Amino acid sequence: MKYTKLRKHVCEANLAIVQHGLVTLTWGNVSAVDRKRGVMAIKPSGVPYAELTPAAIVICDLDTGNVQQGSFSPSSDTPTHLHLYRAFPDIGAIVHTHSPSATAWAQLARPLPCYGTTHADHFNGAIPVARPLRADEIEGTYEHAAGVSIVDTFQAEGLNPLDMPAAFLPGHAPFVWGTTLRAAIDNAVALEEVARMALLMGAHRDPAPAPLDPRIVAKHFNRKHGAQAYYGQPATERKESSPHE
Ligand SMILES: [Zn+2]
Fold first, then answer.
1. Cis ω on the peptide bond leading into residue 207 (within 30° of 0)?
2. Domain range holding 77?
């Protein structure tokens, strides 16, 4: 079996989102990219998590999307993942779930403002909502168009995917990413929690509460992720040996 490590890490990551309570039934998928080898590893479509093994993980060519290795069909969301990896060259892993609170915000089709430092530790501002899909996109290459809608929104709003590692597909659910599998999972867990906190605040009702002071948002995001980051232990947080750990 080729891509043994990549498959093992992606399998573990798919099981981790279940352990974190982000997944009901099979509503979720995690992928990771190996840019040197030009491949993406992703959960197979419709396989129950209890039956998921490294061998079941599907390896797709990053450029063509064709399956390179694996006996199952890849997740039906594969074209969304592929488009995000191609458009955002610095991301290493993607998590998609229908975790309830984040999905509730996606269904509201409203950006999720930053109300507190928990949010600011992971996301530098409001979580954006991707533009709605056009009729031809819904009827055409729907999953690919979902990725295009996220990338279009990041370009239109001038967002950096490393500063804002998440987006809501309106009426659907979030896509979350990170430079590593661990970072992507952490961001997905954090998004679910901050969405839940916002719902507890009643932030979905009008008038919406005032967001956090942007200076505090910047302070918290940058102390963890900025060029002068000082949160955590030096040389451990940002220098992981493998992009898939
Ligand atoms: Zn979905």
1. yes
2. 4-225
